[in-house]
Amino acid sequence: MFVISGATGHVGSAAAKELLAKKQAVKVIVRDAAKAEAWAKHGAQTAVGSLDDAAFLTGALKGAAGFFAMIPPHYTALDLYAAQRKTADSIATAVKTSGVPHVVMLSSVGADLPAGTGPIKGLHYLENVLRQTGATLTAIRACYFQENVANSLAPARQAGIFPNMTGSADYAFPMIATKDIGALAAASLMSKPAKSEIVDLEGPSYSNRQAAELLGKALGKELKIVEVPAAGRVQAMMQGGLPEHLAKVFDEMYAGFQKGIIKPKGDRMVRGKTELAETVAAVAGAKAA
């Protein structure tokens, strides 16, 4: 049996569905009992509780052959890093106590760095505490999510603009679809490596100008790219609704990418194939429904 956390999110749900399609025994962890019912109808076992509850998670992992672990966004926390560490410590305690032999973890490019990476810093912490549990760890260091284009939906719809915070709007960088991450997570669970490894996961490369063109096409309008300079990023994100402390956290991540310190450094590379046009169309359609 494989245990999947984050089953109500993009990546966890994709991993669980892939495993079920492969006729694997799956247990999903959800916080909401109502959402557990839907998974039960698909043939999955369910465990309702929080990843921050080490005793609950230990019980959920007993007898499992593998565990897909991730840290939830925690974007309502007053201290993002503290919330990330709390969840990471709970996960590590449960993994060690339960004796689950293999953990596949959703990590991120840049997780090799202890600082200067914004929210990625919490994944650096989780990787390291999991390595101390004795379980074999497959850390999937994914690149920028294609689904992040959803962050530009509101300004695109309301003002016809696409904010660019990456420096040059013509700079192309890898973007991965979350369904490709879920597929790799499922495949990794079904094929435990001989030793712990770090897997870099990249998708096709696109610039924000290309992303804006695709989003505009999906929305039926031409979008104007608005360049947001580094000095104005925090204020722009706050105007978009982020609390100041979160805006500063994400600003640090953007700065890390611009400095070139956030880059693949894994043991091997896997490349996803989903094109951004497919993801943008799905995101725009889902938000419109």
Brief sketch in words of this structure:
With 289 residues, this protein is α/β, with parallel strands linked by helices. 44% of the residues lie in helices and 19% in strands.
Explain what you see.
The protein is of the alpha/beta class and 289 residues long. It has one domain: Rossmann fold, CATH 3.40.50.720. 44% of the residues lie in helices and 19% in strands. It has eleven helices and 13 strands. The strands form three sheets. Strands 3-2-1-4-5-6-10-13 form an eight-stranded parallel sheet, with helices on both faces. Helix 5 links the parallel strand 5 and strand 6. The radius of gyration is 19 Å and the shape is globular. The two termini are 35 Å apart. The mean pLDDT is 95.
Quick tags:
8-stranded parallel sheet; single chain; 3-stranded mixed sheet; 289 residues; alpha/beta; Rossmann fold; 44% helix
Net shape: globular
The number of helices is: 11
Over all CA atoms, what is the radius of gyration?
A: 19 Å
Order of helices and strands: EHEHEHEHEHEEHEEHEEHEHHEH
Task: Using the coordinates above, name the CATH class.
Answer: Alpha Beta
Name the strands of the widest sheet in spatial order: 3-2-1-4-5-6-10-13
Number of structural domains: 1
CATH topology: Rossmann fold
Low-pLDDT regions: none
Report the biggest beta sheet as strand number plus sense, adding barrel if it closes: 8 strands, parallel
CATH superfamily: NAD(P)-binding Rossmann-like Domain
Span between termini: 35 Å
Helix content: 40-55%
Number of strands: 13
CATH architecture type = 3-Layer(aba) Sandwich
| Structural class label | alpha/beta
Beta-strand content estimate: 15-25%
Q: Would you tell me the overall average pLDDT?
A: 95
